[in-house]
Amino acid sequence: MNIKPLESLPELLAAIESFGSAHYGEAVTQEQHMLQCATLAEREGAPDSLIVAALLHDIGHSLRVNAVARPETDFHHEVAGARMLTKLFAETITTPIQLHVAAKRYLCAIDRSYFEGLSDASVHSLELQGGPMTEEQCQRFRNAEYFEEAIALRRYDDLGKDIGADVPPLQYFVPLMEKMLKSSN
């Protein structure tokens, strides 16, 4: 998959707008989901980088909006999203995004109750993503840089599916994204 990295914040905001109203097998839209995840991270006192990662973790789905979506295949949105953001943000943001699917596979392998709490859509995507990790995969994942951040991001991802959640609009997070841009640091 040839992914063109985004070049600017306006380009990123346009990508969000292109897929934000789409549903992805859950009761909330993509934009509602991303805003909920970022709000959960912020309310928990997460570092700014993790708040931005929570906001943008599903940006790779924006590529699928204009592609032929096949529900029986894994689109690897986590890899696509991390690649899209490499010119804009540091690895403190892009690596947890790239690892958030692996974090789900890891948590399913180590915690049966975690698996039992997944939504139907998340169980379906887990199957497409390779299912729970093996013990060897779990060990490698535990040693990955940004392991803890990926696990935290995964937790926000799982919780950010509440139809009635009160969240700020996307514009609320724009100053934080501007602050975290590579060009700002």
TrEMBL record:
The lineage of its organism: Bacteria, Pseudomonadati, Pseudomonadota, Gammaproteobacteria, Oceanospirillales. Keywords: Hydrolase. One of its GO terms (molecular function) is hydrolase activity. The keyword Chaperone does not apply. Residues 33-92 form the HD domain. It comes from Oleiphilus messinensis. It comes from the Bacteria. This is Metal dependent phosphohydrolase.
